[in-house]
Design goal:
Structural class of chain A: alpha/beta
Number of domains of chain B: 2
Radius of gyration of chain B: 20 Å
Shape of chain A: globular
Strand content of chain B: 25-35%
Distance between the termini of chain A: 23 Å
Oligomer: heterotrimer
Order of helices and strands of chain B: EEEHEEEEHEEE
Largest sheet of chain A: 6 strands, mixed
Radius of gyration of chain A: 23 Å
CATH architecture of the largest domain in chain B: Roll
Largest sheet of chain B: 5 strands, mixed
Helix content of chain B: 10-25%
Largest interface: A-C, 60 and 53 residues
CATH topology of the largest domain in chain B: CPE0013-like fold
Helix content of chain A: 25-40%
CATH superfamily of the largest domain in chain B: CPE0013-like
Strand content of chain A: 15-25%
Shape of chain B: elongated
Number of strands of chain B: 10
Chain lengths: 491, 128, 427
């Protein structure tokens, strides 16, 4: 990008680096105070990193290693989940989680796991026998011998949550700026002064590092570089809704050395997620799936659900979770004012984000002693989808606005009105994946085959963007190259 | 085979068999220089392809003021295969104005082939 | 909620729906209503600007738009009604239809008979689980065709096409015509997927290589596609290690299969045929729900639009009969089964009454290409139809015929078996 002198200069009390689930939750928390705040996100939309490519399992803390900072935060976070999702109009369900034991050695481990759960404060776990688990999960392998049932584990749409947190933060005054990668943080006299990002310079007095996979790089900008993060890739299949019947709960094998293992996890939208793998990689931009990874997901999960087949999927994806830190790094560095790390968040980011925000709040209050806003608005109206409405509700909606009757995405039954509503939000989605995450247009079995031209037309019309400027997810991912009659690349 | 006499290999398109038919030199009435054809129609097709292969050209041209931005067009008959890309270049510069009727002549006698390019659809005027 | 009623409701206004609607009107149905989700009638035909349409029905070689123009005209002159921008959300077994319309809001429509003509959708990358990244630049062939031919945009400049079905090959030529470079067409089977005519006129004419027994094993590029890996496959369609080649490209077109769009059909509880992907039908093209008929690509993926039209004409006429109370409720059916080298047959069953009264066409698809074979239909050991074929190919459906001349055999049989067997027995 251009020289620093050409970048827009703004002032803000607080800069939050990274708009994943952690950064979004922190932004909402910061918006409660009389502080001006900016949320910087390097990608073209909020929630574009690890937070959007995981299995959306909200853990209540049963299986986290006891005594970690992570443990206390996850449990605390889970306690807040019902209230916050209700305030923000984000669908959330505690469908429960079963760890399946296939043999006597595993059955013994269930008792240890139960003790750990209770020790972590999750007292309502119970060990259930073969008959009961098979009744709860009729499609589970008949080899299942017993299970540990964690009733308060749940599911949410992680990007719906992050987007709702950001919209609420924005409504309460936070400036959300996508396409802004943090490049430099200036420290003078032991105090943070300034953040330089792709197209903007922010004079500030507090930076909160929520940069996920890149949190080590941001932290190093202020000389706090005693941790190094590397990506751990997890590959997933998303199964067509018609296979929702396969599982009633989240189901896992017993945890192994690399973490929880491949699972089957119903989603809040009634798909089924199958995965992930756990493979260390070096490149933080290595976002593809692999033949071996996909094969191993199927072979691992079919041990538990023998009916699973690759062709049941609508698509696959890979997510990179940050590995390398043995525990959450949430705090300040002695001698450095104005910098808080919320880093080293590994596989419980979405589960923990509300708790992390609370911990960061304590640190902000300590350092800045801000006033609370008198008129902070905690609520965000739930988006009611056409696909969820009754015929009478649909009727009323179309009577008020014709565009509520024009179905644009036929697989997910998304109307033009919903696309327009999404485009008009703040933060404003300006590419197809961002619109997809807000509306589900393009997530169905035809994978945007039908709706893509229509959604692009609506986006172009509404924003004045040229069709050839519309991207999948930001600069470089333009969908169309040129008009047909102009070879040579002229737009 | 005498020097300099070309053998052309044609894949017949008339039925799924897709016979590979070789035509050596100028096709003879008795068909002795045609090998690989399994039926009369195939032989006839091979002769046509070997002597004067022709193709229908179907493409689109821009249209202004209509209910669609593009007008689909075709050559009324097949043009010599060698002229196909030139026809396309010629048509890339054509711009029509709505309304257009089905069968309307878009370009008369394209590249002096004696063949017209015609509209394959209607485009109504919208006055935009 | 607006409430309507009509004699025959046709879901989908493409080639199948237009033919069905026209036939229903001609058979005497008073109110025939097409429900179409797009803003224009015509289905996929308006974007198929190449020829190959109407060879049977009109004995002419027309482009898609020219072909459908005739059916649009016919439907209009017969006063077929239509509602555009209308998405059907549900078809009940009582033939009550729920639809959403931009103009009229929610609609409940009571139909005397229903014709399902929703067509098909394209198989996606996700359904094949091709590993790699998810960049911009990946399209299904039909989706790219819509951008190029209807909207006037290029999907990319340097193209690899996976799948040698007709749509893929047609797009290879179309993109070449518009100035893109098509690097290769990659086909997992050992033979070309579509018509030989397209292989010659879309690929050979332009020097575009066709790589048989190959597939795409990896996709690269984070924001936009930068390349794909292509490898040879073995007899089980598994990639062979060491045969990988890289193709630099910015566009990948997928032409890897069409899937009849039967969400409405399944939700209605209609019995399906797993192989065709469509409803199980009888000779009237009636489904397992009385008064609900299916035709065109929603019943089974057809190769030429002429077959789609013919199915539409049958279904429309029968739907009109049913709506007029003249549909005979059949109970005595003869099953039609797929025998040697037959992948599927439509219809899946025939009423014995019809077998004894009239000629009934049987559409089928072979599983593998073969040469010098005989299409044969048997009732038990008795042959009731035979036709020699020089060559057969999965990409070109065959038609057999059942005639009342074989009445004696039809009277006592419970099953008819269709085989495509070698003329000379192989060792």
């Amino acid at each position: 990008m251009g020289p620093v002198e050409d970048r827009r200069v703004i002032d803000a009390d607080v800069v939050i680096a990274g708009a994943g689930s952690v950064g979004s939750a922190v932004a909402r928390m910061v918006s409660r105070f009389d502080l001006s705040a900016v949320l910087l996100e390097r990608e073209s939309d909020v929630c574009s990193g690890t937070s959007k490519s995981n299995n959306a399992h909200i853990v209540c803390g049963a299986d986290i290693t006891p005594g970690l900072i992570e443990t206390g935060i996850v449990v605390r976070s889970n306690g807040l989940y019902d209230q916050v999702t209700e305030e923000l109009g984000v669908p959330y369900k505690r469908i429960g989680n079963c760890y399946i034991a296939l043999n006597d050695a595993e059955i013994k481990r269930l008792e240890e796991m139960r003790k750990i759960a209770v020790g972590n404060g999750v007292t309502d776990v119970k060990i259930i026998g073969r008959e009961e688990i098979l009744e709860m999960e009729p499609h589970l392998t008949r080899e299942a011998k017993a299970a540990l049932f964690v009733p308060r584990d749940g599911i949410v749409s992680p990007y719906t949550l992050a987007i709702a947190l950001c919209e609420n933060a924005a409504r309460n005054g936070v400036k959300v700026l996508p396409n802004q990668k943090v490049e430099e943080i200036s420290v003078e006299g032991g105090k943070v002064r300034k953040v330089v990002a792709t197209g903007v310079v922010v004079n500030t007095r507090m930076v909160i590092n929520c940069a996920g996979l890149f949190a080590d790089e941001v932290s190093a900008m202020v000389g706090w570089n005693d941790f190094k993060l590397h990506p751990r890739r997890g590959e997933f299949f998303i199964l067509d809704r018609k296979y929702r019947y396969l599982a009633n709960h989240i189901v896992y094998p017993l945890p192994g050395p690399m973490g929880r293992g491949s699972t089957i996890c119903p989603t809040i939208d009634d798909n089924i997620l199958v995965g992930p793998t756990a493979v260390e990689v070096t490149d933080k931009f290595d976002r593809g799936t692999t033949a071996e990874g996909l094969r191993s997901v199927i072979s691992n999960v079919s041990k538990y659900y023998p009916e699973i087949r690759p062709w049941m999927a609508v698509t696959q994806y890979a997510g990179l979770r940050p590995a390398g830190a043995p525990d959450f790094i949430i705090g300040r560095k002695p001698g450095l004012a104005g910098f808080i790390n919320a880093a080293g968040i590994r596989s419980t980011g979405i589960s923990a984000c509300l708790g992390i925000a609370e911990r960061v709040r304590e640190l902000i209050v300590e350092e800045l002693k801000p006033r609370e806003k008198a008129n902070w608005e905690p609520r965000r109206a739930r988006t009611v989808r056409f696909s969820e409405m009754t015929p009478e509700e649909r009727d009323r909606a179309v009577a008020a606005d014709r565009k509520c009757g024009r179905v644009v995405c036929r697989c997910e039954t998304v109307t033009e009105a919903e696309i327009l509503d999404a485009i008009r939000r703040n933060p404003a989605p300006r590419d197809l994946d961002a619109i997809k995450r807000r509306t589900r247009a393009g997530m169905g079995r035809c994978q945007a085959g039908f709706c893509r031209p229509r959604v692009m037309e609506i986006l172009a019309r509404e924003t004045g963007m040229k069709m050839t400027d519309i991207t999948l997810r930001g600069p470089g991912s333009e969908v169309l190259t040129r008009p047909t009659k102009r070879p040579g690349g002229k737009k | 085979m005498p020097e300099g006499v070309q053998r052309k290999d044609i894949i017949c398109i008339l039925c799924p068999k897709g016979c590979r038919i070789g035509v050596t030199g100028e096709p003879r009435e008795d068909g002795t220089n045609i090998e690989g054809a399994e039926c009369v129609e195939g032989r006839k097709h091979a002769v046509r392809e070997a002597t004067n292969p022709c193709r229908l050209v179907c493409t689109s041209v821009e249209v202004d003021g209509g209910d669609m931005p593009l007008l689909s067009v075709r050559t009324a008959q097949a043009v010599p295969k060698g002229k196909v890309m030139d026809c396309l270049r010629e048509l890339a510069g054509v711009r029509m104005a709505a309304p257009v009727s089905l069968g309307q002549i878009i370009v008369r006698d394209i590249l002096r082939t004696g063949i017209d390019v015609i509209a394959t659809r209607e485009v109504a005027k919208t006055g935009k | 909620m607006k409430e309507y009623s009509c004699d025959v409701a046709v879901i989908g206004g493409g080639a199948a729906g237009l033919a069905a609607a026209a036939a229903a009107r001609e058979a005497g149905a008073e109110r025939v209503l097409i429900l179409e989700r797009d803003r224009l009638l015509g289905g996929i035909l308006p974007q198929c600007i190449h020829t190959g349409f109407g060879l049977v029905v009109f004995q002419e070689d027309l482009t898609g738009p020219e072909y459908i123009h005739r059916w649009l005209g016919k439907a209009a002159s017969l006063k077929v009604e239509s509602k555009l921008n209308t998405m059907v959300l549900e078809v009940g077994p009582d033939r009550k239809i729920l639809a959403a319309s931009a103009d009229e809001g929610m609609m409940a429509l009571k139909a005397g008979a229903v014709v399902l003509a929703m067509g098909c959708r394209e198989r996606t990358r996700g359904a094949l689980a091709i590993p790699g990244t998810r960049p911009a630049g990946i399209f299904t062939a039909g989706q790219a065709q819509r951008f190029v031919n209807i909207e006037g945009w290029m999907p990319g400049e340097r193209v690899v096409i996976l799948g040698s079905g007709d749509v893929g090959m047609i797009m290879a030529r179309r993109l070449t015509f518009e100035g893109a470079k098509v690097e290769a067409v990659v086909e997992v089977l050992p033979y070309v997927g579509g018509l030989m005519r397209n292989k010659v006129q879309c690929l050979d004419d332009f020097g575009i290589p066709l790589l048989l027994s190959h597939t795409v094993t990896n996709i690269r590029g984070n924001q936009r596609l930068t390349g794909v890996t292509v490898a040879k496959v073995d007899a089980d369609r598994n990639p062979v290690a060491g045969t990988e080649r890289n193709f630099d490209c910015d566009t990948l077109l997928l032409s890897v299969g069409l899937i009849p769009e039967n969400e409405l059909t399944e939700r209605c509880g209609i019995e399906m045929d797993k192989v065709t992907g469509g409803a199980a039908l009888d000779e009237k093209l009636e489904t397992s729900v009385p008064g609900v008929f299916a035709c065109g690509n929603v019943a089974h993926v057809c190769d030429i639009v002429d077959n789609v039209t013919q199915m539409g004409l049958t279904a429309g006429a029968e739907a009109a009969k049913f709506a007029a109370g003249k549909g005979a409720a059949e109970r005595d059916y003869v099953k039609i089964s797929a025998g040697e080298n037959v992948r599927y047959i439509v219809p899946q069953r025939v009423s014995r009454r019809s077998l004894l009264e009239r000629n009934i066409p049987v559409h089928l698809r072979v599983a593998r290409p073969d040469q010098n074979v005989r299409l044969s239909i048997r009732a038990g050991n008795e042959q009731v139809f035979k036709a020699p074929k020089k060559a057969v190919h999965p990409g070109e459906a065959l038609i057999g015929e059942l005639s009342p001349k074989s009445a004696d055999y039809f009277r006592n049989t419970s099953e008819l078996v269709v085989d495509v067997e070698p003329l000379v027995k192989r060792k």
